[in-house]
Amino acid sequence: MSKLIVTPAPHIKDSDTVSKQMRNVFIALIPALIASVIFFGTNALVVIITTVLSSVLFEVIILKIRKKAIKKSDISSSALTGLLLAFCVSSFMPWWIMILASFIAIAVAKHAFGGLGFNIFNPALAARAFILASWPVLMTTWLAPYAAITSATPLELLKENGISADYLTMFIGNHAGSIGETSAIALLIGALYLLVTRTIDFRVPASYLITVVAMSLVMGQDIVFQLLAGGLILGAFFMATDPVTSPVTKPGRWVFGAGCGFITMIIRVWGGYPEGVCYSILIMNAVVPLLDRYLQGRIFGCKRWNVV
Amino acid sequence: MFWLKSFKGGIHPKYHKELTNFKPIEEAEYPSKVVIPLLQHTGALCEPLVKPGDYVKVGQKIGDSNKYISAPVHASISGTVKAVEPRLCFTGAMVNSVEIESDSKKEILDGISPPKGDVISAIKEAGIVGMGGAAFPTHVKLSLPKDKKIDALIINGAECEPYLTCDHRTMLEDAYLIVYGIETAKKVLSVSNIFFGIESNKKDAIKFFRERIPGIKLVKLETKYPQGGERQLIKAVLGREVPSGGLPYEVGAVVLNVGTCAQIAKTMKTGMPVVDRVVTVTGKYLKEPKNLRVRIGTSFTELINQCGGVTKGEIKKVIAGGPMMGFAVPSLDVPVVKGTSGILVMTEEEAKVPDPESCVRCGKCVDICPQYLMPNFLGDYAENGKFDKAQKYGALDCIECGACSYVCASKRHLVQLIKLAKTEIAKK
Ligand code: SF4
Ligand code: SF4
Fold first, then answer.
1. Residue A268 maps to which CATH number?
2. What is the per-residue burial (b if ≥16 Cβ within 10 Å, else e) of B83-121?
3. Residue B2 falls within a domain, yes or no?
4. I need a labelling partner for B45 at 20 to 30 A (CA). Which of B23, B207, B284, B417 fits?
5. Which residues are recorded with the post-translational modification FMN phosphoryl threonine (chain A) (predicted)?
């Protein structure tokens, strides 16, 4: 008989893997992808394909340079970063900027910190912040759905002209905005899928949205409008829930989501930008190491929270 | 499920209990030789009381220690002592052992009769240890510090390890022994509240005990791993948390496994020490998985052969105990000991272990840790040799259940790393 294999316990493992988790997020984004192509046509498709492909390409090149094995999880995570990055820009973006943005996401935001699992900031959002700072005009030039004319987003209209969009349009998403953020219904279908398959924990989006509602009440804003507008749903369910850049503990997740909601509303109402989802998540990303440290909670059999 | 008692955290692995849970306990073939390790329990190694050439009978004490936390070992067959020397044990360690060659007479030691007098010393003399796997000496567990009183005795019939059904079958077939054992323990501990915890997947056992025994509170537990962990069981049944670093009696509880209760009864009724135990011999590709009553010291090879070997492929990995906390044995030529609850045979496809990747901080391990730890960080600190940090984050509270390694999406060897940290912390 051949030699027996000796490995440490446990001897069975759950079938879940990182690439399966990523695949679930992809599946969840399909409705929004379809909606974006319907509303913004081939422009959107070109931006999406360019960004996804270049993200994967940069990932492979950098892993080669770093002499690391290329694993399934690396490919799926970089493709997802690319897709999310494309989702939070205007369909008006030229392809070469998107290639540069992919480079920022993968090389700077991810690999400069050590690669998958070690990055502090959500790579897609970090890259978005970078292009928003470098090409502010392009980043705020939106195309109206089904047409090649520029238009303003509901949040901009509210901020600059005090005009509120109607709920149905915002729910369906046939208005100007970033490629993947406009259709609330499509995103919510995907979000439900993520929750049901337990790919994401409900705590981050729940506390994020609850805080937005509470802040709208306090600040005298239209609650439904604030929930449906901008990148909130995309951000709350798909960006803030990125495992790598969100807290690992349950109390940490509540606070993280609440912080995102708080900052989003501050920026939206008082800030210089009409939208605050991207920056709020990035700011809270920076706080995650602190949350992990102070919000571990109670160890079994201890009276007080364990604070290291 | 809200109507079932449980603890927070935990996992739901595939249980595969259907392979053996309907198989009545069978007597394993009488072995032609046994190898009996002189350390089968948590505690001190026994000194041999026999030498090569001696003739021994079933139930004869062949090893003992004068240390308090230890348990004597006894001959499980009659025959001639062939050797007293270090032999390979299921953990991979070499342990001083007594080899006995059978004379096939099954001769029982003269004078074995129901013990009179002190129950605790009878239990100690009989070498009874926790039969659930940890093998902690039972007499120590039953001897409470003088100033301590407990108000609850909890009987552990959870059997939360996948594949294992030996406790389940014992509950169905040896119920009267279990009840007798409970009565004995109840008197020793002078406690009146008895709780009997059984996981919801053992419906027949729950029904059986609910109908049969008045005076014992049956607690239906959620089927979830590690429901049978002492701390988790006490939390589920009584809602009390054993303090960090403390012992169950500090919250007024003692936990006994059903197999241990049955053994206490056997000893009290007949005087026979621990010479056998029930072992679930199982595996997806094992021809005929069985629950066997096995003489201590029988080799794994014999038992696997009695179950017909594997039907497909080759035996690649064999686990002593359950798949979550058991040991992968280095050779099939290792003996069954008092704590061997199962022998799980795996072929190539089940034996493969995926390579660990870097942590993606998904928090799954944190969500399920029954001790509310952060296994991801404990693993990181252990990997980087920062054992102080690991200690501050509660490494010593880890019960080594392995649930974190089970769920990890990146397939990290978390519990292994945490065990390493614990060993390093203990060295300080
Ligand atoms: S850290 Fe310890 S107690 Fe927690 S799940 Fe892992 S092995 Fe179990
Ligand atoms: S389950 Fe694995 S990948 Fe997820 S946080 Fe824990 S250690 Fe990291």
1. 1.10.3430
2. ebeebbbbbeeebbbbbbebeeeebebeeeeebeeebee
3. no
4. B417
5. 153
